[in-house]
Amino acid sequence: MHDLYQFVSGPLAWVAFILFVGGSLYRMIAMLVEVKKKEPFIFTYMSLKYSLRSIVHWMTPFATYNWRRKPVLTVVTFAFHICLFVSPIFLLAHVTLWDESWDISWWTLPDGVADVMTLIVIAGCVFFLLRRLTQPEVQFVTFPSDYFILAIVAAPFVTGFLAYHQWFGYPMVMVLHVLAGEVMLVAIPFTRLSHMIYSPFTRAYMGSEFGVIRKSKDF
Amino acid sequence: MAEPAVTQDEKKEEEEQKVVDEGIEVGISRLTEARIEQVINQVLNTETGARLKTYVNTCIHCGLCSEACHYYMSHDKDPKWSPVGKVKQTLWEMIRKKGRVSPDFMRRAVEIAQTECNLCRRCLQFCPFGIDIAYLISMVRRICHKLGITPLYIQDTAHSHSVTMNQMWVKGDEWPDTLQWQEEEARGEFPTLRIPLEKEGADIMYSVIAPEPKFQAQLIYQAAAIMEVAGVDWTMPADMGWDNSDMAMFTGDNEIMGRVKRTHFELAARLRVKRIVMGECGHAFRSVYDTGNRWLGWSHPPIPIVHAIDFYWELLKDNRIPIKEKYPEPVTLHDPCNVIRGGGLMEKARYVAHALCETVVEMHPNREYNYCCCAGGGVINCGPPYKLKRVKSNRVKAEQLMDAKARGAKVIISPCHNCHSGLKDIKNYYDLHMDIKFFGDIIYQIMEKPE
Amino acid sequence: MVDQSNWDWETREKTVPMDPWKDKFNWVEEPYASPDGEHVAAVVNQDEEEFNVCVNGETWENPFEKIWYLRWAPDGRLTALVSDMAEWTVAVDGVPWENKFAYVWNTLFSPDGKNIAVAAQNDGMYCMVVNGKPWETTFQNMTYFAMSPDGSKTAAVVQVEDFGEGEIHKFQEGCFTVAVDGQAWENKFVNAWNMAFSADGTKLAAEMRHNLYDYSIAVDGRPWDKVFQCVWEPVFHPVTGSVIAPVRTGGKWTLAQDGEILWEGRFLQAWHQTFSADGETLAAIVSPRYGRWTVAVNGRPWSVTFSTLVSDLVISPDGSTIAALAKEDQTWKVVVNGAAWSNTFHMAWKPVISPNNRHVGVKVEKQGKYTVVINDRVWPQECEAAWDPVFSPDSEKVLLRTVENGQYLRRILPVTEITG
Ligand code: HEM
Ligand code: HEM
Ligand code: SF4
Ligand code: SF4
Fold first, then answer.
1. A218 → closest Cβ in B64, B85, B130
2. Which residues form ligand 1's pocket by a CB distance below 6 Å?
3. CA distances to A31, A43, A85, B44, B404 from A26, in Å
4. What's the gap in Å between the CA of B296 and the closest CA on chain C?
5. Residue C59's pLDDT band (boundaries 50, 70, 90)?
6. Is residue A219 part of a domain?
7. Rounded Cα–Cα distance for residues C38 and B344 (Å)
8. What is the pLDDT of residue B6?
């Protein structure tokens, strides 16, 4: 078990991070190259001002018409995404690992807070799952892959939570957690989780079109 | 007033609605699976790029765009009418199957793309990623065009564009003849009025859509009267290109769209006008202001396009139209997608409405969030077979209007031809008993005229 | 071409007062100056339903119920489309053609002015009418028109098959073709558009589409073997007689000759290809990058590009001077051989190149005032109206036609008076 842990947290972690960073860069660059090649007109309309106007509005809870119309979802999705980013990055256990391997460290969350945030992410996943199962308009456009993606996202948080509380055989859960974390990272550039990579671009483009040409709001 | 709940009667109507469109059926009967596969892949691989891919990869299938769409809202939130639902039933499937879809699938795809989406872009404002569903649906239309399965009526219109550069088969002589006839009529009221034909170097060229000379010549009369009273230095072309409308844009026949727009702009350039002022039409605005010019390589219209709302705003702001008395009846203002969400004229439209009318009752939602009329995007141009579906698919608009009516509005102002016709059908179907007018109608009615 | 050497190139100034016209008539429409500048004319209203043409203060003998499209033929005859008793025809110097029609429009002139043609409709059937004589054949519809350089032939895109409203599949079988002097080509197409005659008038080329998707050029009725995604108007090589047209391939534009790709380069747009008279220089308006416009000469684009529009390309017969208009936002510029003039305008007209190919003159407008610019030097006179400058055959002098203070002026100035 120890060897297995060494392997997943050592070489496999390398592979995961390389695939995550490399894959994300690749997706981004490939997209821009294709735009340059096939739809260069897009660059003509890009405007920093309107890109930011659009991105900032959509990154702010209740700042857009649709966020205001859907208050529950808005609260959930913002809580979910914020916790999703913040908890792993500022988790003491994670920072300790960075410190041990690379001798770098940063501010960390109190464990209790991180624990709650983890639960929020898990709750968010449950919320999204229920939405998918109960809301006809979501159901209609749901594919098995959507559940799979949710599972990929939920897994590191669930296993991390279990590991932290040392429920069910710790070493095994820890291995699973690390694996789940790695799977999620790798999944980002290669599944619809790539919305993390693409969303700034799609928003910036639509923001620019609406600002420069259509002179109205895209939010 | 038809009740929102689906009754037996409506069920029956639904059955009757099963239309046979010769344009689609003949096209489908000529299709082979191999041809479908080849065309889909040709369009997806060579005519689209990162944009389409990114939209498809980014969509998280969250359904947040659904409630933007009047089709979805009017069909009791049946997801097959939601924006993303329509993409799922068309483009996603084509991509997933790498183009290997059946003729039956294409029959449904063309029906969705041409008659169940107005390309109104309201859903773009609802999607957290700004995914351009209207663009995706346009690509489906492009595929259907290339497969030759476009609905008959709008295909006929596209043919008219290809031959005459106008929408209604108006012939070369009929156009100037109509203008001269309207000029003569108007001289009864304004003895020195002119519709200056082919006057090089005028300030503006006035352009209209072909239904005006064909069926609504009084709109040209009114425009001429307004120009006369406001003392505008204007001209109208006698040559092809006078029609700013474009149904080829909505069938995916980009090459004809480009030809029609080129003719229009080069005509204005030949007449050496500073600006093109266009009548109260929305889709035409989109075609000259945003879409057609781009296909030709003009990032912006080479000659500025001024929509009638904008033009009236200018004239009223400068007090160039003397008003006898404001229009007394309470009005409500419909915001046409293509000039509001597509052109930012919401505040100017309100300025004009308030300058002309005593009371303006706002619809809700309004401005760039206004619901589409369900006629635009070429849907009304698919003709009578789809009329019932069209009016039933905009119950939310009827509710909006009813609400405005409950708050006193008697007249709907709709500064767009498509919206005008679409709202008229809606008001009849839902027994709304409201009048529909263009801004031009009201201005003409209340402006000071010579004794 | 019209011989301009016998025009008065000596008298410095001639005037025609136009203010009095306003008192004489109910209203005076926009004036048109004759090519030699000796006359100025306008449609005038004399009474209800009574119009006339006033030339240098004199009206035509007979008024008409309607008059429009007042245009000077290159040889100095004055034409207008006129109507009496709901019948239309062309009046030349006040004399209407004997044949009358339900409608006439789109007057065409041969460069020497000898031939005048219009499109006409009678009983819902269409044909061209040349010097008052209609084609022997008429058609259900007629869209685009052309006249051969010597004016001896006219052509039009015509409808030769019947199709009813909504008969889209019939339409798609091909119902249109081109008729030359009333003689329709045998091949029918889904569409045909702009046409061009060869220099000697013996051949005709037209844009066409086989079906909704495949575009090509038909020469004397025979389409090129190759098809393209789209095409624009063809031109004939003035010497070899081959046909050159912009074609769209792989989503980009370039020029093709007799069906084969001619220019290596690919552009976002390419059109208005124009030959010098010697056939050595072929230039076209192109867009090398999205939203940028310029002129490409023999395939090589100028290095300057413009944002909004490039138009009105003209080439001197020897190809040494190539001029065009360029627009950036609302500003018009004149570009000669790849360099933009320093003066800019609110409007500009098609550049005129002097017979010696050395001067370029342009009618321009700024703040509602018209003037003329030669070689980037602005003539300081501000006018209420102006017409294109005309250079004398020896290129030493320029004829300026203007309206100033309600008075029409014909001036002859040495070119140097403007260029310094
Ligand atoms: C490279 C792989 C990873 C390693 C080696 C790793 C390691 C750890 C360790 C050692 C713990 C602490 C368990 C404990 O307290 O006993 C932990 C907890 C946790 N990890 Fe990871 N982790 C990895 C990836 C991830 C990823 C990608 C995520 C999520 C995005 C994640 C989220 C969490 C969470 C949420 C907790 C528990 C927080 C709590 O409930 O207190 N981890 N991880
Ligand atoms: C800049 C980064 C990101 C942005 C702007 C963003 C934005 C969004 C938006 C707008 C939605 C749809 C609204 C909703 O259903 O809540 C969404 C859903 C979601 N996102 Fe993100 N996201 C980002 C990063 C991530 C990351 C890194 C992950 C996980 C690795 C993630 C996982 C999810 C999940 C699981 C959903 C719910 C999908 C469902 O409904 O099933 N997001 N995101
Ligand atoms: S009709 Fe409008 S809101 Fe509905 S899918 Fe089409 S573009 Fe979107
Ligand atoms: S809102 Fe956007 S991301 Fe969500 S389903 Fe609709 S198009 Fe896809």
1. B130
2. A 9, 13, 87-88, 91, 93-94, 97, 111, 114-115, 118, 156-157, 160-161, 163-164, 177-178, 181-182, 184-185
3. 8, 19, 22, 22, 52
4. 7
5. very high
6. no
7. 51
8. 45
The full 3-state SS of B50-73, as one line of letters, equals: HHHHHHHHHCCCCCCCHHHCHHHH
Percent of residues, chain A, with pLDDT higher than 90: 92
Domain formed by C4-321, architecture = 6 Propeller (2.120)
The range of the structural domain enclosing residue A131 comes to 2-213
- Give the whole-number percent of chain C exceeding pLDDT 70: 100
Residue nearest to atom 19 of ligand 2 (CA): B60
Q: Say what the pLDDT of residue C1 is.
A: 75
pLDDT digits (tens, 9 = 90+) for A105-153: 999 999 999 999 999 999 999 999 999 999 999 999 999 999 999 999 9
> Distance of alpha carbon C36 from its chain centroid, rounded?
18
Measure the CA–CA gap between C219 and B98, rounded to whole angstroms. 40
Cis before residue C246, ω within 30 degrees of 0? Answer: no
DSSP-derived 3-state class of residue B148? coil
The backbone region for A38, taken as left when phi is positive above 0, alpha when psi lies in -120 to 50, beta otherwise, is alpha
CATH code of the domain in which A40 resides: 1.20.950
Read off the pLDDT of each residue in C142-160 and give the average, rounded to a whole number.
97
Helix, coil or strand: residue C6:
coil
In a domain, A113, yes or no: yes
Domain assignments of chain C as residue spans, ordered by start: 4-321
Q: Does C27 touch chain B (CB under 8 A)?
A: yes
Number of B/C CB contacts below 8 angstroms equals: 115
The CA radius of gyration of chain A, in Å to the nearest whole number, is: 20
Query: CA-to-CA distance for C386 and C409, rounded, in angstroms?
Result: 9
Q: What is the pLDDT of residues C80-90, one digit of tens each?
A: 999 999 999 99
Q: How far is the CA of A60 from the centre of ligand 1 (A)?
A: 28
Element (H, E) at C45: strand C40-47
Whole-number Å distance, alpha carbon A98 to ligand 2 midpoint, is 26
- Which residues of chain B register pLDDT less than 50? 1-7
Distance A158 CA to ligand 1 centre (A): 10
Closest to A193 (Cα-Cα) out of B270, C48, B57: B57
Q: Which of A5, A20, A91, when mutated, tests ligand 1's pocket best, judged by the most ligand atoms within 8 Å of its CB?
A: A91
In chain B the domains, ranked by start, together with CATH numbers, are: 21-150 (1.10.1060), 165-316 (1.20.1050), 324-446 (3.40.50)
B156: enclosing H helix or E strand: helix B152-164
- Confirm whether A218 is domain-assigned: no
Token reading at C304:
């300057």
For residue range A173-213, list pLDDT tens digits in order. Answer: 999 999 999 999 999 999 999 999 999 999 999 999 999 99
Is residue C321's pLDDT more than 50? yes
Ligand 4 pocket test, candidate residues B51, B62, B91, B117, most atoms within 8 A of CB: B62
Residue-wise pLDDT tens digits, B336-361: 999 999 999 999 999 999 999 999 99
The answer to whether C395 and C356 are in contact (CB under 8 A) is yes
Note the pLDDT of residue B17: 58
Whole-angstrom distance, CA of residue C50 vs CA of residue B21: 52
Q: Is residue A208 part of a domain?
A: yes
Quick one: which H or E segment has residue B418? helix B417-429
Residue C360 pLDDT more than 80? yes
Other CB atoms closer than 10 Å to residue C8's CB: what's the count?
A: 12
pLDDT digits (tens, 9 = 90+) for A13-70: 999 999 999 999 999 999 999 999 999 999 999 999 999 999 999 999 999 999 999 9
Cβ contacts of A206 on chain B, cutoff 8 Å: 124, 130, 132
Note the ligand closest to the C-alpha atom of A15: 1
> Distance between CA B231 and CA B224 in Å, rounded?
10
Number of independent structural domains in chain A: 1
